[in-house]
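User: quick one, fold this
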Amino acid sequence: MKIVVLNGYVLNPGDLKWDNLKALGDVIIYEHTSLTDEEEIISHINDAEIVFTSMSPIKAKALNECPNIKFICTLHTGYDNIDIDLAKEKGILVANIPNYGSEAVAQHAIALLLEITNQVGHHNMAVHKGRWESTNEWSFWDFPLVELNSKTIGIIGFGRIGQKTGMIAKAIGMKVIANDYVQNDSGREIGAYVELDELLRSSDIIALHCPLLPSTTGIINRNNIAKMKDGVIIINNSRGQLVVEQDLADALNSGKVLAAGLDVVSSEPIKKDNPLLKAKNCFITPHISWAPRESRERLLDIAINNLVKYIEGTPVNLVNS
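Assistant:
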């Protein structure tokens, strides 16, 4: 059985082991595979039966020109880079990796928020450049610092990750409200479910943890921003396409939005003409919420187990069964 990994480096830059995967077949690991060049993707898949992909798309051309594919496994939770309907037509099963990094992603959401409110990175650099020494004062700060206790965080998308973020926010004294089309008791223990417009009106901080759906694409847009409090903070480490980036940049530059903390953008890697790169108070990290070693190791273990279960005839975590 020939197994291909299309984007091996981003999952395992050298601190994890592929041994358990290699025990299952003839494995070829491409550290890097194009995110746009379909011919390269096809050449890397070649005659493989099993394909693991992170963000390299597997669409109609690849599915049609690589007829040996029998099983595809994403190396993350999302699967919008795969044509799952065509795969199903061709009898190809597609699996994803659910719930491998909820804790890490929630942690990063709060890290972005704390960087905005406490400006740790900026003041660390200021100290190392000698500014504290030169002030002759026992304390200084360059920006207004924000206390989060008693502030309201509105979380759009209150599944596993959203609820983890809510738990951390609640632990530091924040009021938690949430909007989700699915409501459950575990969510009610953390915060109150509200309609989207109420969340937009009432929140001091808005955190996005919803999936990318037609109903959520561009949910942060000019009209919805207008409904928010002046000086709101927006956090997004879910999907970049949830945000209309020019609208957010305009709101940051006008001061309507105090700051934004983003780990994702609409096109990745980020393009130099992205308006958020020049927007005021916009903190951007390079899609690393998922990347602690612990969560990557968990992801790899789940991916290998997905293949084991497929081989055994009892596939799990299928998204197109």
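User: anything notable?
Assistant: The mean pLDDT is 97.
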